[in-house]
Design goal:
One of its GO terms (molecular function) is FMN binding. By secondary structure, the chain is of the alpha+beta class. 17% of the residues lie in helices and 34% in strands.
Length: 211
């Protein structure tokens, strides 16, 4: 096996290092984050850093990049306290990826990338109409990460919108039913295919497959 030390990684070319470190965690969720600024101008950007933090209460975390340059998503979330997480599906991967381009503050990524903002139930942040899984969150806490200047945003789940074919009887989601995709590295997109499901693990019983 290849063995890379911290010194090796730091010595790599910047782009090589970016690709390597962004890939070593494996597959990551592909999510479009929908926000609006204080005047209502809509913004959407792709993130692969959304993580489950707890179910009671329902909390999700998201890591933003350092704010040494303008970060429209972060600024909008701070301004309104609201944002949406929208799953990316196979049919609009290219448009979703294009939202990572450096658009100006005055330009809507929705319009530039061919995506459709939709507002639901009076929530201040836009959802992505093309997405079959949308989550509305309210910012609860910011956790600065001093080691690299990033910020962990923690939001409480206020709304969940699901296509009927996604929600299963036990509350789990069939992501393959809507051709959900995931991300590897910075720019690799992959299909999601179910492999197996197992019952709650109990010591001494061995793994019990249920699906």
């Amino acid at each position: 096996m290849h063995h890379l030390t911290a010194a090796d990684i730091q010595a790599f070319d910047k782009i090589y290092r970016l690709n390597l470190v962004n890939s070593i965690t494996g597959y990551k969720p592909a999510n479009l984050i929908g926000t609006a600024d204080g005047s209502g101008a809509a913004n959407v950007a792709i993130f692969s850093s959304v993580v489950h933090l707890g179910s009671d209460p329902a909390l999700l975390g998201m890591v933003t990049r350092p704010t040494t340059v303008p970060r429209h998503t972060y600024e909008n979330i701070r301004a309104t306290g609201c944002y949406t997480i929208n799953h990316v599906h196979e049919g609009f991967v290219a448009a979703a990826h294009y939202t990572s381009a450096n658009f100006g503050r005055e330009e809507s990524e929705f319009a530039a990338c061919g995506l459709t903002p939709v507002y639901r139930d009076g929530f201040a942040a836009p959802y992505v109409a093309e997405s079959h899984i949308g989550i509305g969150l309210r910012l609860q806490q910011e956790v600065p990460i001093e080691l690299n200047g990033t910020v962990l945003l923690i939001g409480s789940v206020e709304h969940v919108y699901l296509a009927p074919e996604v929600l299963q009887p036990d509350g789990s989601l069939h992501l393959g039913a809507v051709a959900d995709v995931c991300i590897s590295g910075l720019d690799g997109y992959h299909r999601v295919q179910p492999l197996a499901r197992y019952a709650f693990a109990r010591a001494g019983q061995g793994p019990q497959r249920i699906g």
